[in-house]
Design a protein that fits this description.
Blueprint (H helix, E strand, L loop, with lengths): L1 E10 L3 H18 L2 E7 L4 H7 L5 H8 L3 E6 L16 H10 L4 E6 L13 H4 L4 E6 L9 E4 L2 E4 L5 H16 L4 E6 L5 H15 L5 E6 H10 L6 E4 L1 H12 L9 E5 L5 E5 L16 H13 L4 H16 L13 H12 L2
Parallel strand pairs: 1-2, 1-3, 3-12, 5-10, 8-9, 8-10
Antiparallel strand pairs: 4-5, 4-11, 6-7, 11-12
Bound molecules: nicotinamide-adenine-dinucleotide.
The site of nicotinamide-adenine-dinucleotide (NAD) has 23 residues, from helix 4.
């Protein structure tokens, strides 16, 4: 048996509900792959603010830094919403983890299953064949630049260095190499100086990968083309703020935010794995949350950080099979609850 350590941060709202169903499914495939996972559960987000007064304690960050992977549910909720800059906010925990673990690349695959094409707000003929990956820069840009208030004004600063752009571009080109060999780099180079540097550096990285086709798209056009011709995209690479918005837009192509996984990677093999959706306070505690996005995030964790790619394939295939056989949550217009979807998955995996 190979032994690995995973820090689990269930977080707030539906986070604990989707995490527990996912761990049930992971345990089945891990056992068959001779992988022994030690799950260390910790507080992060609003639940940590309630107990410790901060979204992420130094102790939890240290545990995450020492782990093989971090498995996160979601954080946040109305209880902790505040516009007072002196009060702690749950998202600070996420930002602290990303910078503390140096997770500079966020990967979000979007590949709608044929069985769910009609659940998408887009027409079938638009989404047919869509299989794209958004690579978002995660530790730079406007979310991490200087910000503040000055009398009646407020400011946020977007800064990027060559090194920050280069390393995330390399992740995108490496990913494209194992896919359809196309990279679309999204920026606002007609207006922003940071985007002009982005375009310059991505072009240089692209020259080192002549086998990969590179196109540059302005972010406003990219927002339109994602809806107009999603199947044309392979890998989309972009900076933090644009990536935050475009990856949610791309998410809607699948018809449900309850199906989208994400991986955040740095230079080592350790990574952070979480569903794209938030803590869904409107349905928390009702047993309605779709755990599939979290299960698919666990599959990414098995593949990228825990060295168990066959176990990852098994989980992904089980999710596809369950969905093809009607294991639909309410978010997709189905009737199954969180535990029932977990039961269906575990039954498929135990065969
Ligand atoms: P959200 O993703 O939590 O919810 C948006 C809508 O999608 C809601 O109607 C919700 O019920 C539904 N939904 C989300 N996940 C679902 C699932 N698994 N199954 C079924 N339906 C699902 O986004 P929001 O409402 O904008 O944010 C709610 C809270 O979550 C806020 O406090 C926000 O800051 C936080 N948030 C956290 C993260 C994170 O932890 N990474 C990401 C986004 C938002």
């Amino acid at each position: 048996m190979r032994e690995v350590n995973v820090v689990v941060l269930p977080g707030d709202g539906i986070g604990p509900e989707v995490i527990s169903e996912s761990i049930r499914a992971v345990e089945i495939v891990a056992k068959d792959a001779d992988l022994s996972i030690t799950w260390r559960e910790e507080l992060m987000g609003g639940c940590s603010i309630d107990v410790h007064g901060t979204a992420l304690t130094d102790e939890v960050l240290a545990a995450c830094q020492a782990s093989d992977a971090v498995f996160l549910g979601a954080v946040g909720g109305p209880k902790w919403d505040t516009t007072d800059p002196s009060k702690p906010r749950p998202e600070q925990g996420l930002l602290g983890l990303r910078s503390g673990m140096q997770l500079f690349a966020n990967l979000r695959p979007v590949k709608p299953l044929e069985a769910l094409w009609d659940a998408s707000p887009l027409r079938r003929d638009r989404i047919a064949g869509t299989d794209l990956l958004v690579v978002r820069e995660l530790t730079g840009g406007i979310y991490f630049g200087a910000s503040g208030r000055d009398g009646d004004s407020a400011f946020d600063t977007c800064t990027y260095s060559r090194a920050e752009i280069e390393r995330v571009a390399e992740v995108a080109f490496a990913a494209a190499n194992g896919r359809r060999k196309k990279v679309a780099s999204v920026d606002k180079a007609n207006v922003l100086e940071s985007s002009r540097l982005w375009r310059e550096v991505v072009t240089e990285v692209g020259a080192r990968h002549p086998e990969i086709e590179l196109e540059h798209i302005l972010v406003d056009n990219a927002a339109m083309q994602l809806i107009n011709r999603p199947s044309d995209f392979d890998v989309i690479v972009t900076e933090n703020l644009f990536g935050d918005i475009l990856s949610d837009e791309a998410a809607m192509i699948t018809g449900s935010i309850g199906l989208l996984p994400s991986a955040s990677l740095g230079t080592g093999v350790a990574g952070l794995y979480e569903p794209v959706h938030g803590s869904a306070p409107d349905i928390a505690g009702k047993g309605w949350a779709n755990p599939m996005a979290t299960v698919l995030s666990a599959a990414l964790m098995l593949r990228y950080s825990l060295g168990a790619p066959e176990a990852a394939d098994r989980l992904e295939n089980a999710v596809a099979e369950a969905l093809n056989h009607g294991a639909w949550g309410r978010d997709l217009g189905g009737e199954l609850g969180t535990t029932e979807i977990g039961d269906r998955l575990c039954a498929l995996l135990a065969r």
